[in-house]
Design goal:
38% of the residues lie in helices and 4% in strands. The protein has helices at residues 66-75, 87-98, 112-117, 132-152, 168-179, 189-193, 196-207; strands spanning 35-36, 50-51, 162-163, 166-167. Strands 1-2 form a two-stranded antiparallel ribbon. A hairpin with a 2-residue loop joins strand 3 and strand 4. Helix 1 (66-75) packs parallel to helix 2.
């Protein structure tokens, strides 16, 4: 049984658990960790929003996403959607959490690709009009193929492995450019800012 100090805030050293003090009536089913989430007049009304457990996730790109938000919500907690992404991808995450029926429709052509690349499908990457919606899926198909080849040979995927003497990184970039009939000089600023290795690392993180 914990002794409760009435002051407004406490540290761990201010709590003491007395061995053997808990009565037989104190069982998990009778314990409530419910915590108000919004301001309310205590004793006069019930809070409009409450958490069943006082638990939240850190507002970090590698921690808080829609998957964790759904998992925490099911347990009674809350998660924050990180802000270092486009407004469109933030809205998509919120939709997937709030409305299960939208989880698929708000994930066009694997939206994780575009979030990882800091791009929207309609963003133009080359002067001939090729968009991120065309370029990224093709690039990802090439990467998936290389990963499958590595797995078949019992080796780890590494950007500096080679295909016919060409590194994976150069192979993917050159093959994609040739496929769309462009060169790196035809790239817009969005293409020039695109980093293949950073993109794929973020993509793997988001895919879990």
């Amino acid at each position: 049984m914990a002794y409760y100090y009435p002051e407004p805030s406490h540290t761990f050293s201010e709590y003491l658990l007395v061995p053997g003090y808990t009565s037989e009536e104190c069982i998990p089913d009778r314990v409530s960790l419910k915590t108000p989430l919004v301001k309310y007049r205590k004793g006069q009304e019930e809070p409009a929003l409450s958490l069943n457990i006082p638990m939240t996730s850190a507002v970090m790109q590698s921690v808080s996403n829609d998957t964790l938000a759904i998992a925490l919500a099911k347990e009674g907690g809350i998660s924050f959607i990180f802000g270092s992404q486009s407004i469109e991808s933030q809205a998509a995450m919120v939709a997937r959490v709030a409305r299960p029926e939208l989880r698929e429709s708000f994930t066009p052509a694997d939206y994780a690709m575009f979030t990882a690349a800091y791009l929207k499908p309609a963003d133009v990457l080359f002067t001939n009009g090729v968009t991120a919606g065309q370029y990224l899926p093709y690039v990802q198909t090439l990467i998936d193929g290389l990963e499958a080849d590595c797995a078949a040979q019992g080796m780890e995927f590494n950007w500096f492995n080679t295909v016919d003497g060409v590194t994976f990184l150069d192979y993917v970039e050159d093959t994609a450019l040739a496929h769309f009939g462009v060169t790196a000089k035809d790239g817009t600023q969005l293409y020039k800012d695109f980093d293949m290795q950073v993109y794929y690392s973020r993509y793997l993180d988001q895919k879990g």
